From TrEMBL, chain A:
InterPro entries: BBS12, GroEL-like_apical_dom_sf, GROEL-like_equatorial_sf, TCP-1-like_intermed_sf. GO terms for biological process: chaperone-mediated protein complex assembly; photoreceptor cell maintenance. This is Bardet-Biedl syndrome 12. It comes from Malurus cyaneus samueli. PANTHER family: BARDET-BIEDL SYNDROME 12 PROTEIN. SUPFAM superfamilies: GroEL apical domain-like (SSF52029), GroEL equatorial domain-like (SSF48592).
UniProtKB/TrEMBL annotation, chain B:
Component of a complex composed at least of MKKS, BBS10, BBS12, TCP1, CCT2, CCT3, CCT4, CCT5 and CCT8. Interacts with STUB1. Interacts with BBS2 (via coiled coil domain). Interacts with CCDC28B. Interacts with BBS12. Interacts with SMARCC1, a component of the SWI/SNF complexes; the interaction takes place predominantly in the cytoplasm and may modulate SMARCC1 location. Interacts with DLEC1. The keyword Ion transport does not apply. GO terms for cellular component: centrosome; cytosol; kinociliary basal body; nucleus. The keyword Methyltransferase does not apply. It comes from Malurus cyaneus samueli. This is Molecular chaperone MKKS. Keywords: ATP-binding, Chaperone, Cytoplasm, Cytoskeleton, Nucleotide-binding, Nucleus. GO terms for biological process: animal organ development; chaperone-mediated protein complex assembly; cilium assembly; developmental process involved in reproduction; protein folding; system development. Its main location: cytoplasm. PANTHER family: MOLECULAR CHAPERONE MKKS, SYNDROMES PUTATIVE CHAPERONIN-RELATED.
Amino acid sequence: MPMAFKDVNTRRHIGLQQLSSLASPGRTFLGPMKSHKFIVDESTNQSTLICSAVRLIESLDLTSAAGQLLNETIQAQNKEFKTGMSTLLFLVGAWSNAVMECLQQNVPVPAIVSVMSEGLNSCCERVQCLQIPIHDVKKELSEEVIPLNSRSHQGDDCHFNKCLVSPLAGFGSVASLVKAAGDKSSSVLSGSGVTASSCITKKLTHSRHFSPLGKSHFSSQQDNFQGYLSDPCGCCGLGHLAVALSHGNQTSMKLLQSIAAYQQERAECRGSSQLNIAEIVTCCLLGLPESYSCVSPGFVTLVSPEQATVIKHFADKSLRILLMDGDLTEQYRHLGFNRPRNVRTILEHPNPQESRAGDTWLSRMLDVLMSLEVNVVLVKGNVCENLMEGCIASRILVIGCVVWDVLHAFGQVTGAQAVTYLSQLNASCVGSGAWAELWKASDGRAMDLGELVPVRLGAGGIPLLTAVLTTALPSRAQLLEDQFWTLLYRLHHALKDGKVFPGGGAVELLCLSHIRVLAEQPQRLGNDKAVRELPSPWLAEYKSIVLQALASGWKQYLSVVLCNTAKAGSELEAGASVDHHLQKAAACASPSAYVLEEFRRGGVLGDGSDPFPDHGKTLKVFDNVAAKTEAWRRALDLVLLVLQTDTEIITGLQRNQLLNSHVSSEFMFL
Amino acid sequence: MSRLEAKKPPLFISEPLTRDAVSQSLSLLSGILKSSYGPAGRLKQLHNGVGGCVCTTSQSSALLGHLSVSQPVLRVLTASVQNHVSRFSDCGLFTAILCCAFIENFRSLNVAPFTVIKISKHLLSLCMDYLKSEACACRVSVDFSNVETLVCLVRSILTSKPACMLNKTEVDHLTMLVLKAFLFTVPCHVETNAILGKCVIVPVKGTRVVDSTVLPGLLIEAPEIQLGKPLAVKRTGSNAIKTALFSVSMAGDGFNPEEGTIAVHHGVSLEASELNELLNLGKQLVKDEVGLVMCQKVMHPCLKQYLKENGVIAVDRAGLCLMEPLGRLTGSKPMASIHSLSLGCYGSLKDLCFESFASKHFIHLIPEDTVICSLILCNRSETAWDELKRVCETAEHVLQLTMKEPLALLGGGCTETHLASYIRHKSSHLPANTFKDLDCSQTQYQLVSDGFCHSLETVARSLGHNNGEVLTDMVYGHCWFVPSGSPCVSNWADLVSKCGCGMNSNTKDLNWRFLQGQSSSPIIQSCPKEPSEKVTDLLTLECFAAKCSGLQVALETANLILDLSYIVEDQN
């Protein structure tokens, strides 16, 4: 196993260049107005519709070391927060470029590392004063009337509906969309089969960033959600928080409001104010318009028509339920069990009646199920098809590929104990009190979705909720699911943090303003051990360059969001707008007070040309605290980690492979 | 028909060190190691080039572990360093860089290798005698009744590897955790032969470093444990929990023959009989009032179910690494068979509870009085976590070594430059019979001594990575770093504020000189002094035992390599 080395530490750092180029396609995912992308696989000609940094990263070639680290970083943020990945990806690119410029100006690496990381720390401490406790948010939001219109399609939905009419026109052409946005007389929602309500005067309503819309422009038709939203007092706290965190995504927002209302009721019983993510699952139904999306208590899933007939036979019966945490097949053995290899079976007296040995397992299993009068079996893994048929004939409903959280929820309320093998089954493992029915849409519309039928299972007091995501476009299913989970986690983390940030660029603007202050105070930075021994005049020379680099990340972030949302025609114009606000903030005695005041007035980076300036009260938008600051930190950590790397060492590859490759001249061998 | 090929004769390579290929590889390796050294060291990305996981590191153990070197000369070097690291954990890069420097400096001298070896051994003994003497001005004693020096020692180790990606708050937090974990491993009641306990690192990746924590006892991951439910556990008469520990697989596949074939009659199920054995074992455990059954490997779900129904908590997949600490913690003897249970094998525990960190769930084993603890270590990214784990292990090991020998050496290059100053001073004041004893001339001695000092200074110089000047003062012999791009000034005092270890400030003119290359004029050095005012906070310190060993290993390895006259390579 020979070694190869590649020097990467030139003034044009290869690793940083790779990060920069990998991050560049992600800029259109910033802000509430995201442009979708088609990922086309040239070998199969299949394409996927994506609209998030995570899905983008999944589709990119990440064989380079920097790419691998970027992927790892994005996945870690996704795993913990499910939000902030686009911000992370964007800042990785912006800061990589900024750091490369510092290298061009001969700023030593330790100075970049020290000043940037301490600068970020300082900014994170500074923006703490903007945090708003959840309690205050709920109170404030509850005092405002939040429109809950499920049939008016705005914000992101407009974009989508337009795509529905003419998919090609919608993608990658933000400019055309932007034109339509300002034109009140034109309706982009024609012929889509979805009611275009009178509210299409302006695209972005719940924009996290800009141009909130006066409340009177909503048509307040509440439908579908009377079930959980009929009690405005009980749920408005969480529900309104959900709105404020949804950043304009109507469909997911409505689902979240229902979930919030439902869980709040339970939370009051439990005495905990947190959202329980483990009690929520999703089910995608293709073939229904998106307006049919809703939250159903219990477990909604798709089954075959044959299984659906079993449910019809159940009627209103209380069902006995069995939970299995493995596969339900004859060959399945628990994880860690090594199959016997060298065991031979000797048959001394062949008995022709036992020839169909394979069926004995089947009949034994069916006997077990019948004898314990099991009606429903939820299986974590796969189910043997023959057994499935046998069960249908015996009117036992067997559903495979059920996630552990669902099994757990049913176990809690029915008393069922999950088992691995049917052979270990005894009466105490079987739960009771479950029910099953065919799932119906809110208008009772029959579900004829081709080969699969949606059904709903539950049990008395089950805390489980299913977000049923409906769409007529199969390519959007994944996207809708991703968006739903993102918003759900935003609400979850807002409650977990106990506080939120004001949205709309407020936090980033304060960071920019704070960096100005830092640049003017020489003593505030550079206490790190790595540069401790450096005298301040030396550090001061580089400090302003490096702080500018740090600031440029957030400035570009704000500019790109302004452009993406058509609040600025060009990044130049957007940058000027940000500068204008920075000057105004600097002129104030307290920049944080300025930022908060602007936020309260309805948008930090509003450009004053709001068409509805008279509507004093506007919708608030909030951001997560930990998700945002962690995304910053992860982005900077990655850039600084790559910056400090000067050599790649390739292990495992054969020397000849490298010698013969076209990059062999870049390597040295030991 | 088989075809026989004549054996190739072995390849003899004489004077390997004079070969270009060898010196190129040596300087390449030396360059890689030097560039990785210290808190401002550059990182190396180790990966397979086709999308495998990336290890970003500047640690000798990770670097040398991945290097597979084809040059026999370099293999001698890396093996020595790895052996040192396996015994001391720390100072691996120091050893390797110093060894390379010795080879490079001594090779260029026009002195016969055996003379070089003799003189350098004498120089080493001067160093070691000085380091072990009370007069040594580059060491500090570590007071275990005061946390201050220990904090400096741990902090220096944590900050020496930039790939951990720690900020100041995180360094402070982890320093305290590492110290706390170490103190847990020190037995409270010391008898004649006290044995230090063990700190087990529990990985929680993808979260903030400040979420890390230390708990007494052990954690076993238990994904299926349901949180929020009270933990009902069976206790014995004395209110303790009786425990059983199995190192054998309880998955029910024990009948698998290692080799050969088993023939069974139709209708006989080995699986069923094995399960039956397991259930019999379960019955015995229940009868013996065991409250917690732990298994290194997998437990059969039926056995788990049986135990659960009888109020016994069963945890499987504990893993090999936990077996020894689990045995020490509970006093259980690991059972390697499911057929023989003896009462003497059971252990006991004070309490059990559930803990969860990020998305991981654990069962926490709380002992009565323990020297075993768990460090739940968090870091945001996988690559930074791996580096941080290695660093924390090093820090724990260094604390243990320091407990045996409560001394520390000044870091930041100061020990190296101070030793060089001391040797320069000492070697110019040697009694004449020394040269006779060593069978060398004074000139030869001076040449080797210069090479020796240059080598030490090379290590100190490798701490500066940005083309800045590195200085040493003629008063204390400490090491000073001038930032790159600094304007040319006549007075160095304007540019340096503190020496590498942090002991000295530039309050007065300390008569600085450059620390680079071979100087033409001999350096007249007086004996380096000990600073009058002792600074105790924010010092950079290094492990005494590890550094002393590193110095010896570096020289002995260099001498071994210098003495090589042939390499015999088997060509077959």
